[in-house]
């Protein structure tokens, strides 16, 4: 590994950074919304099973590629290639993942900017600047441009400092803060009228719904998206892991933290929805469908906070601060994927590469904001429903069918000498070769059809 690449200084540092990448708006915003739209506890159960049985094996594939290659996603995959077509396939996977990460960050930054503006709104309301409050929550062009730029500025500040002093340092700070805020909010919401009904809907599954194809496909898609699969992020994070670490254990720990925080987010948002319903807000249609869907966090929850009176402003401040922190822990990983490529491919200083890459992504964000109706949904669909499943599937095919089995064993045994005697090695190779590509293709076909 080149001296200027950097490395995570500790196991805890990697776990916080990788979990921070996985734990974002997809967990705290997307997971509860998906749960409410897909049968409540039945979706939760399916998600937990699929996250460990299918998403974890694919997650491990990206970590192994990264640590073996000790370089950016494109270079790492090319190191495993022996033939010309394999080199070309490696470039498609690696660079495709980098582009996917950049596109996700371009719209993710806009949503994160809204979260930041909604964080400030309770403050302006408390001090009586009502016009400023309306402006902050309008999601109009000017505030969107300002707060998207501000959010990208925070992401740039962290990434330009490198692996140990940037990504690892801030992940260690932000992740515990996120978990503490989440737990405090859960405790408060559970004291409100209607929360017990929401808790019941969240924790008591209707097992008949588990056989519904749409529920299973949605749960699998959520598991893959929340773990940042198909974006080259975990390949680059894997390249910063010490050879002494047990990758199998590390991957399991990150997956456990990811699903645990998603579960905690459901414990907050689902009961909060039923609290809002107890206060007279309509949450579900006559057919039982969730009315707000993805807009839940910007419509129903602010109405709930307003109905709490004076204390509601402080709850709203804590909630949207939580969302902003979650967004930041993910954005730094999404920016690191293209930055690492630019640094190593063009031999540029990290500061310069970070600035150039960020400005290019920010320009896409600005273009989306100026053409919100036509571009926002298009970019979201392109990156998450097409890009991530395809790249994730190709990555599994690459490690399952192209990379030599002996090389995989050699890499995984560093830090885990008993690999071949463990349950992981008895299952993972054929999982990654057959099951994961098949299941990811189901997610992709569902998106298309």
From TrEMBL:
It is a multi-pass membrane protein. InterPro entries: Na/ntran_symport, SNS_sf, YocR/YhdH-like. It is found in: Membrane. Its main location: membrane. Keywords: Membrane, Transmembrane, Transmembrane helix, Transport. GO terms for cellular component: membrane. The chain crosses the membrane at residues 12-32, 44-68, 89-111, 144-163, 175-195, 215-238, 250-274, 310-335, 355-380, 386-403, 423-445. This is Neurotransmitter:Na+ symporter, NSS family. The lineage of its organism: Bacteria, Pseudomonadati, Pseudomonadota, Gammaproteobacteria, Alteromonadales.
